[in-house]
Amino acid sequence: MAYYKFIAILSHASLKFIKKTYHFINAVLTGFWLGVMGEKSLDYSDELHYNLNSKYTDDKYNLSGLFRWGKAAIEKYFSNTKSILLLAAGGGRETIALSRIGFEVDSYECNKILVKYGNAFLQKNGIDNKIEYLPRNSVPADKKKYDGVIVGWGAYSHIRGKKNRQSFLAVLSPFLNKEAPLMISFLWTESRTRQDKIIKNLSNFFRIFSKKDKTELGDGLMLEFVHYFTEEEIKNELTQARYRIIGYNSVDYGCIVATI
């Protein structure tokens, strides 16, 4: 075999080996930590991620407007909408973008650092609006009706367990006027992988000893907890919670729109 061919084949083999090894080690570590971390640890891990990531408290980022997929969904499904309930508002990126379009936006966020930054950011940019603090995975105490509801960028993927997500969807429906759109963005995957199975099985082995809720296929850690949805899974969750799907897209990011 010619030397140049040998070197090319060796490079392919070594890189494939490294990638497979990395994915295996990542799955093992993720499964272990998901197995031993309790609810408070996972909540704090999420808080640490957003507190230490300067992106979410950067004015330039928060002035960047809606993402392409989000803007397309707003234009298509929220054309007759006036009032919006925005949950997981972050540092104000979506609040300011929606306000400038002309929507009346009630914004809520569970991270106190982002709430503090976001309110200063909105005031500085002349937006007569406020982001209110709201504990994670909950809804406002005031059951006000809205023309539309948005669960902020990827926040639905941070809710742990199908049972908890369906409970969240159930308490969210009273905020929607009839035929009003609910938009949820989420982490998307085309199919389940070998790594998903390793994470689930290893995590649930450790969870046996603490009687925690079972880890599900698609659960993972990107420092913070995340759940990756297939198209079938996300649609089933909303349908089972008695929502009617009116839009779905996963070209740039997972986005689903439904109504009651």
Question: Mind sketching the topology for me?
Answer:
Layout: H1 3-36, H2 39-52, H3 59-62, H4 68-77, E1 83-87, H5 93-101, E2 104-109, H6 112-124, E3 131-133, E4 148-151, H7 162-172, E5 182-188, H8 194-207, E6 219-222, E7 224-229, H9 231-240, E8 244-249, E9 254-259
Parallel strand pairs: 1-2, 1-4, 2-3, 4-5, 5-7
Antiparallel strand pairs: 5-9, 6-7, 8-9
Helix pairs in contact: 1-8
Task: Explain what the structure shows.
This protein has 260 residues and is of the alpha/beta class. The chain has one domain: Rossmann fold (3-Layer(aba) Sandwich), CATH 3.40.50. 46% of the residues lie in helices and 18% in strands. The chain is built from nine helices and nine strands. The chain has helices spanning 3-36, 39-52, 59-62, 68-77, 93-101, 112-124, 162-172, 194-207, 231-240; strands at 83-87, 104-109, 131-133, 148-151, 182-188, 219-222, 224-229, 244-249, 254-259. Strands 1, 2, 3, 4, 5, 6, 7, 8 and 9 form a nine-stranded mixed β-sheet that branches. A hairpin with a 1-residue loop joins β6 (219-222) and β7 (224-229). α1 packs parallel to α8. The longest helix has 34 residues, at 3-36. 36% of the residues are buried. The model has no long low-confidence stretch (mean pLDDT 95).
